[in-house]
Amino acid sequence: MALTHTPVAPTSVHEGILRRQALRESAARTYARSLPIVPVRARGLTIEGADGRRYLDCLSGAGTLALGHNHPVVLEAIKKVIDSGAPLHVPDLATPVKDAFTTELFATLPAGLADDARVQFCGPAGTDAVEAALTLVRTATGCGGLLAFTGAHHGMTAGALAASGGAPDVRVTRLPYPYDYRCPFGTGGERGAELAARWVENLLDDPKAGVPAPAGMILEPVQGEGGVIPAPDGWMRRMRALTADRSVPLIADEVQTGVGRTGTFWAVEHSGIVPDVVIMSKAIGGSLPLAVIVYRSSLDQWRPGAHAGTFRGNQLAMAAGAATLAYVRENRLAERAATLGARMLARLQSLAAAHPCVGDVRGRGLMIGVELVSPHSSGAPVRPGRDSAPDGGAPAGDTGAPPADPRLAAAVRRECLRRGLIVELGGRRNAVVRLLPPLTLTDEQAEAVLDRFADALAAAERAAPHPDDPAVLG
After folding, report:
1. C-alpha–C-alpha distance, residues 434 and 425, integer Å
2. Among 296, 330, 364, where does a domain finish?
3. 340 with 264, same domain?
4. Which of 265, 255, 331, 281 lies closest to 71 in space, CA to CA?
5. CA distance 250 to 308
6. Which of 181, 198, 311, 318 is 20 to 30 A from 361 in CA distance terms?
7. At residue 144, what are phi and psi to the nearest 5 degrees?
8. In the chain, how many domains are there?
9. Residue at 346 is within a domain
10. For residues 315-337, b (16+ Cβ closer than 10 Å) or e, as one string?
11. Considering 330, 352, 368, which residue would you say is the last residue of a domain?
């Protein structure tokens, strides 16, 4: 008697995998809580789940996938290494694959750094590169202090957490980061950035400020997890001048902003500065784990083994990374990100005019954030450039911004997922919807993303309780 098998419905497979994940994995899991999908196939912008649904992925592996999922040039580079019989993993030995990656990486560096640079291959994650950068500058300067900024996110290891915005450390001096919409000085615009720069200057030059001698200053050209907040170019130049005049190494964390994401190959190029150290990860591995720091040769004073790690020689990641870097450079995808990102920002800003729950729309290139606020707050949203004061700044008093609404942001994310759009949240209060589509995004795909987001925003706004609702008043 022949045995017959009852086909398993895709939904059953999907639900079973999610159920086992919830039972087996730790309470620390994050994306899985808000994105209950089981990816089984992916290409470019699109993910297909085990339940048969298709999604437009604007998370892109938290910014890792510059070329989207399974780009042909990445797959070919990986396949070539596998077919060659080359070792898949070595320590920090020289290999042809590594040499090709380093050569391509140096070809993309900002002018003024490539000719006098060293590269250190770190552990596989961006946080490992942050730790390496901190060790480097502390060794080179002999100082233990660190200058870092409010709202920063640099990773999850001890040193990276200390440099980030929510982890106190006596060696870290926390400085104000310019934030037009919620300016800490209540002005926004150029005036807010100028006051932030003056604060830094006065703090560094005041012998009674209590600032530990800084080994370096670490900053993000665009704060990602902090809410997609671009640093003003003039302020970036001030930070470069302040640090250079005081012989304090400047560390640019380009883990999320690098490889064309913001409209230039490296985000520091918007302001024209050359940092002393650049931290790189995410997209430089072409979707595989890879992290490096590139720095001025004068800082190269650590001893052999001063910063090591087992997985520094991932040949597949280096091959995928070299292919990605070359493709972005040769196809001018940074310029494409600048053009398409500007169009997406313009449409989102027009959407904001019709939705009082949208407090601010901001970003650079294809790194976009939409900050959601309480639509029933007494304060009216202040959007720099539209509701600003005559001098370009916003009115005083925290720039008049209404309270952030993280519950509404979570509702928008859920509504996006129902419509087949994957987005993530960030910001100080987790109220910023973040869009990080691949740099290969087409015009038609961009329109589809924005259409789905607009529908999701309207649905979440309609469902949001009004404060005068009897159920809310209790």
Report:
1. 6
2. 330
3. no
4. 331
5. 22
6. 198
7. -110, -15
8. 2
9. yes
10. bbbbbbbbbbbbbbbeeebbebb
11. 330
Structure token digits, residue 291: 């992290």
Alpha helices in 273-405 (DSSP H): 315-330, 333-354
pLDDT in tens, the chain (474 residues): 454 554 556 668 888 888 888 889 888 888 888 889 999 999 999 999 999 999 999 999 999 999 999 999 999 999 999 999 999 999 889 999 999 999 999 999 988 999 999 999 998 999 999 999 999 999 999 999 999 999 998 888 888 888 887 667 778 999 999 999 999 999 989 999 999 999 999 999 999 988 999 999 999 999 999 999 999 999 999 999 999 999 999 999 999 999 999 999 999 999 999 999 999 999 999 999 999 999 999 999 998 888 888 888 999 999 999 999 999 999 999 999 999 999 999 999 999 999 999 999 999 999 999 999 997 765 444 444 334 333 333 333 356 789 999 999 999 999 999 999 999 999 999 999 999 999 999 999 999 999 999 999 999 999 887 655 544 434
Single-letter amino acid, residue 257: T
The dihedral region occupied by 203, where left means phi > 0, alpha psi between -120 and 50, and beta the remainder, is: alpha
Position 115, amino acid = D
Give a yes or no: residue 470 inside a domain. Answer: no
Say whether both 316 and 386 belong to one domain: no
Distance CA 65, CA 459 (A): 29
Q: Verify that 216 and 352 share a domain, yes or no.
A: no
Token digits of residue 80: 């070539």
- 310 and 255 in a common domain: yes
* Domain with 50 in it: 13-70+333-463
CA-to-CA distance for 446 and 443, rounded, in angstroms?
5
List CB contacts of 4: < 8 A, sequence separation 6 or more: none
Could you identify the residue written with the tokens 């006098």?
116
Q: Is residue 23 part of a domain?
A: yes
